Amino acid sequence: MAKINHNNFLDTVNEVIGNAKKQQIVHLYAEDKRFEKGIITVNGSKLFHFGTTSYLGLDQDERLKQAAIEAINNYGTQFPLSKTYISHPLYAELESKIQELYGIPAIITKNSTLGHMAVIPSAVNDKDAVILDHQVHWSVQNAAQMLRLRGVSVQMIRHNNMDMLESRIKSLYDSSERIWYMADGVYSMFGDFAPLEELKYLSEKYPKLHLYFDDVHGMSWCGKNGMGYVMSVYKDLPENCLLLATLSKSFGASGGVLICKNNKLRNKIKNFGGPLTFSAQLEPASVAAAIASANIHLSQEIYELQEDLQLRTQHFSSLLSKTDLPVIHNNSSPVFYIGTGLPITGYNFVKRLFKEGFFVNLGLFPAVPVTNTGVRITISRNNQLKEIGELVKVMNHHFSKAIEDTNTTNTNIRKLFRLKSEGTTIEAINTGSLNMIYETSIQKLDKSIWNRLMGQRSVFDWLGMEFLEKAFSYNNEKEHNWEFHYILVTNSDNKPILATFFTRALWKEDMLAPESVSIQVEEKRKNNAYYMSNYVLSMGSLLTEGKHFYLDSTSLYAREAVLLMLKKIHVIDNVKSSEMIVLRDFFEKDDKLTDLFHGQGFVKIKMPDAAYINNIQWNSEAEYLNSLSSRSKRHFKNDIKKYEGLFDIKWQNICKKETLGIIYQLYLNVKHNNLGLNTFAYPQSLFKNMNEDKNWEFLLLYFKSHVSHASEVPVGMMCCYKNSNHTFVPVVVGIDYELSRTYNIYRQLLYQTIKRAWESKFETIDFGLTAAFEKRKVGATVFSNHAFVQAKDNYFMDYMTTLQQR
């Protein structure tokens, strides 16, 4: 059976960033002819600049600029040659200055990203293991991915979770020569710190533990000689620690710096550290500016600059503490983050600040979870106290306006960031000109209205929903018990505008991950059945597929109805929290709906393609064959018709108990052999319920008596739902895998299902998701399918990428 198409992460990011670009929030251009300190011009407006990472403002220091100009005059714009051969004349002085700064010889890299790419693959041996902090900078994570090709175990823990780190250390200890934990000294989005003292304690407790820090956001503004946050805590760099600092950002120039106390390891990295050998070296202007900055760092002036910045940082922090703004971390770094929760609120808030004359950055997915969108504000020495005070005043005023405009609350935002909040966590729903009907059982909804809006689709006509409620209630295992939530929105004339249903159920986090990931995760589930499993509130259910969403897009209230639905599901989620909210399956391209969902904190992901046969009009095999392409006709002749005569084909509404047991085992064969769509196995009671429901029937394939494999046991089965007299729905398949390839059992099941549908006068066959290639061969039309996902935490998604190795 064909595997599914997996989500394209880059496409998802492109959707999110593209939407922010439409809002004129990102991909902007500065328009200044000459920079003024603390000012930047965007779209014709001069704005106070609260987005720079040059915290000490050294990028505008005249000494650095004059040094760079002189270097260009003396040496040109570049020295285009690898440092392996020769360095240009200023390099030796810079290396000497950095060694004086740290008391340790340093390796200069083109930038910090190339620095990680040079250092990490050189420092980590094949028998080592790597543990990444979930929020360690992308450049570290990207460099660590190269290790997988060598078979190095790369794992991930939740941000700053030392208990989780110690557990991973213990699990890797016996099988690894060294274990590297990689983290940021100061984290770039929220401005919080690595727990350095706890990490030092763990490295002493477990001698195999080595530490690797990216401290580019901690550089210059703190520590002796501006050596950064990590050195301000450790004073003397431990032997088992590597530190990557920067000559850009606060340092005011360009380049990265590796500090390593181990001479042997340092020489190994310098002799052949990937980009160190094959990339061009820093331009003369950058080296000269770095030398000028190093002179400042080696003087008493650096402490005056630090104090000046500290004054501004403390002033900003003090003013924020007097507001009700959701500041995510109260700390002493110059990086602050004001949570807005949903992207649409972030867009609104940032644009309001732009209009008031303040430039700030918006934190977006994938740098943060999509529902952790917020405004990142960085304080520099170029920001004056008066401007800082005015920014707080403006933010305090416009934050309430932004949340009012986007129909959210401070309480909801704080909940998304897990911050303490006073007051109720469930917000009232303002229906405006619309009415909402909300129920938790299909029994309470009018059958004719539900079937008119949602009938003839998959297994979710009224009777199908009644069946699902019965089948997935009062079971022994928690993954087999689902909650049902029905939403119907009408206008003031009671005309339906929107209809859908959601289920809250336990999902495997790797459900849509590559099969290679699920194989690894399933190994861990042998000891913990619920490893990497969480509750999800999803449109539709884990047994239904297809368009679970009715919307009258011609209605003037369509957008309002969707927003009302989203607000209701968040109220539901407030009562019983889920790790993720999923809106699925969407086949048509709808830019308005996509933009609306993006603004409300949902990211678009690719789902497995869906397959249908619509408008069944043939009455015979010959007519069916005429509907196929020439290639599919050959496939039918060679792979299906050739073997049809070997099978006894039985359709049964009721099966014996022992037959149901065999049906269940055939289903489990498929379930365990196809991890491309990895869900919990359905309970055996589901098939018992099918057996007792007149709307279900079983297709069973037996070998005829003259076939060598003949027995009284079926070798293939399909459980099919009859949706009114309109849609035939093959829902669950089961196969004897030992015989499947030889006799093309799966393809035979598909054909016999089609044959049953046309003989029974159904109009449509809903083949559902996965195996689209096989279904296309038998005449199905395949539709691209996507969903919108709102995850409260990126951890599991990022963790699963670390499993995609070997």
UniProtKB/TrEMBL annotation:
Pfam family, one: Aminotran_1_2
Keyword Transmembrane: no
Keywords (A to Z) from UniProt: Aminotransferase, Pyridoxal phosphate, Transferase
All copies of domain Aminotransferase class I/classII large, residue ranges: 48-385
InterPro entries in the cross-refs: Acyl_CoA_acyltransferase (IPR016181), Aminotrans_II_pyridoxalP_BS (IPR001917), Aminotransferase_I/II_large (IPR004839), AON_synthase_class-II (IPR050087), PyrdxlP-dep_Trfase (IPR015424), PyrdxlP-dep_Trfase_major (IPR015421), PyrdxlP-dep_Trfase_small (IPR015422)
Obligatory cofactor(s): pyridoxal 5'-phosphate
Pathway as given in its UniProt record: Lipid metabolism
UniProt signal peptide: none
Top-level taxonomic group: Bacteria
The protein's name in its UniProt record: Aminotransferase class I/II-fold pyridoxal phosphate-dependent enzyme
Organism for this UniProt entry: Aureibaculum algae
